[in-house]
Design brief:
Chain lengths: ~375, ~160
């Protein structure tokens, strides 16, 4: 490159992923200072180091500099390369933490990405692989990212603290993204879910299903919750169980919710019935928030709208999460793009809370490194 | 006699309303830039208008409903403003990083010592957990009928508009 674009500077380790992702897509270097500078154990953590290694793997020619204490990170992005890869994720964060960023980057690789991720598939902190599979993948399809080589498969399930799960993610590449006009979420026609259990009694999954159904059946009869009990090597290294639920509407909107049991040796034991009930209530909360995209995928949809063709994209969201608000600010710094934000008060009663209509014109991002065949 | 009086009243009122209408449109246009200022203006107008109207408080009859139109509109506008905080301002207005820049500037004192102010709020935010999930802060009681009814029409089993 002839002239290096001016780098952006940030403070603190929060929002590390979105900064690195946006930096990679925009080509602007970033410098992050004072990463946990005042803590007893300063600097980057294992899981962040693992994330940076992953970014290094999927790109070609990135320059990463970290100072001795790990409190300062300089990242000069290379080109998104892709290909067939594998990565061992840190068990401190679930695979969802890594996958969320890969979902943002994968459509813009030079070669289609096919990656095996190993680690924790479900935990209490990040969106699990199950929920991302059920909500983020249909969202990418709306933007025209589709086809045979598009899959997310859980081959082994791993629970914290030790993990041992394995996931295969494959995504085709696209030159341009289709703009979307998604302002009517439609009505929920069915609820699907997965109750999983590993290294515990297989009966637990059934108990979760029964309690979750007891509350959801008051709203809609079409509910099916799969029980997924993995055995042997595909059950990972730690015991645990949990539930993920997804509500699908007539217009192809997917709203997700999930809960997982406490990791072995941490906190008190959770009753499967209680977990099922609470997870069903979380889904109802998500439905109350509403919109055409659920709260976890807000930033993904806004990113894809930004990178779309030079055309107007619209999406109706529930209340903006703090993560999304910061993401909007970052989109402005990296791509000089501002969204039109309109609040839509809930006119019709009985349709949940207030909604937000987001409108923008795409920057016409095109994947130049995609080879033409 | 009362009818003609109120007629005159209507004529008197008309230009006033017009002026208000123009200002209203203007304030709507600049709403994005300074929402706060308009609200103050409106409030001021509202007060003035109220005072002017006092003399006609005894006017009775069919046109009485017209009297406080601007005031009512202003009230409705204010209500809307309060219930829907300007999201654009919230997102793009004040950015947390500005605060960090500032405390960089006054960190050094005489080149040797630097003041260490524990700015808990922004520091915690800067080094907080990086997670995209949006946890529910105040969960509603989904066993109550009214809470359950609040999302009833989100389902195909609910009411469909024509």
């Amino acid at each position: 490159m002839a002239s290096q674009p001016h780098s952006l500077s940030y403070v603190g380790c929060n929002f590390l992923r979105q900064r690195l992702v946006l930096s990679t897509l925009s080509g602007r270097p970033v410098k992050i200072r004072k990463i946990r500078a005042k803590e007893e154990n300063p600097g980057l953590r294992d899981f962040e180091a693992s994330f940076i290694r992953l970014i290094d793997k999927v790109t070609n020619g990135s320059r990463i500099e970290i100072n001795q204490t790990g409190t300062t990170l300089y990242y000069q992005p290379g080109l998104l390369y892709g290909g067939v890869l594998e990565h061992d994720c840190s068990p401190h964060r679930s695979i969802g933490y890594y996958l969320e960023s890969l979902l943002c980057l994968a459509p813009f690789m030079k070669h289609p990405l096919r990656i095996v991720l190993r680690g924790v598939t479900n935990d209490q902190v990040d969106p699990s692989v199950d929920v991302l599979k059920a909500t983020a993948l249909p969202l990418l399809k709306k933007f025209g990212i589709d086809g045979e080589g598009f899959e997310l498969k859980i081959t082994r399930r791993g629970m914290p603290p030790k993990g041992g799960g394995e996931v295969i993610f494959a995504c085709p590449v696209r030159k341009v993204l289709r703009p979307i006009q998604s302002t009517d979420p439609g009505k929920i026609k069915r609820i699907r879910g997965t109750a999983y259990s590993v290294r515990v009694s297989p009966q637990i999954a059934n108990r979760i299903v029964d309690s979750a159904r007891s509350i959801l059946n008051k709203f809609i009869p079409d509910i099916y919750i799969y029980t997924d009990h993995m055995k042997g090597t595909s059950s990972g290294k730690s015991p645990g169980f949990g539930l993920s639920l997804v509500a699908e509407t007539t217009n192809g909107t997917f709203l997700g919710a999930e809960l997982a049991s406490n990791p072995q040796g941490q906190g008190t034991a959770v009753l499967p019935e209680e977990l099922g009930l609470n997870c069903a209530k979380l889904l109802l909360e998500e439905i109350y928030r509403g919109g055409c995209v659920d709260s976890t995928n807000q930033s993904l949809v806004l990113l894809l709208m930004t990178l779309g063709q030079q055309d107007v994209s619209k999406v109706l969201l529930g209340p903006l999460s703090p993560y999304t608000i910061e993401f909007l600010r970052h989109l402005r710094s990296f791509f000089q793009i501002m969204f039109k934000i309109e609040t839509k008060p809930s006119h019709e009663e009985l349709q949940g809370g207030e909604k937000v209509l987001m409108t923008c014109v795409g920057i016409g991002f095109s994947n130049l490194s995609k080879t033409i065949k | 006699a009362s009818e003609s009086e109120s007629d005159r009243k209507g004529i008197q009122n008309a230009p006033e309303k017009n002026v208000d209408g123009v200002e209203w449109a203007e304030s709507k246009a600049v709403e994005d830039e300074d929402g706060g200022g308009d609200v103050e203006n409106l409030l001021k107008e509202e007060e003035e208008y109220g005072e002017e109207n006092d003399f006609s408080a005894d006017t009775a009859g069919a046109l009485k409903w017209k009297e406080d139109l601007t005031q009512k509109a202003a009230e409705a506008f204010l209500r809307q403003q309060q219930s829907a905080p300007n999201l654009r301002k919230l997102v793009y207005g004040t950015v947390a990083e500005d605060a960090d820049e500032e405390d960089d500037a006054d960190e050094e004192l005489g080149g040797l010592f630097h003041v260490s102010r524990p700015d808990k709020e922004s520091k915690q935010k800067a080094n907080a957990l990086d997670c995209s999930k949006f946890p529910v802060e105040t969960p509603q009681d989904w066993d109550l009928d009214e809470v359950m009814n609040s999302i009833r029409d989100c389902f195909v089993t609910g009411k469909w508009e024509a």
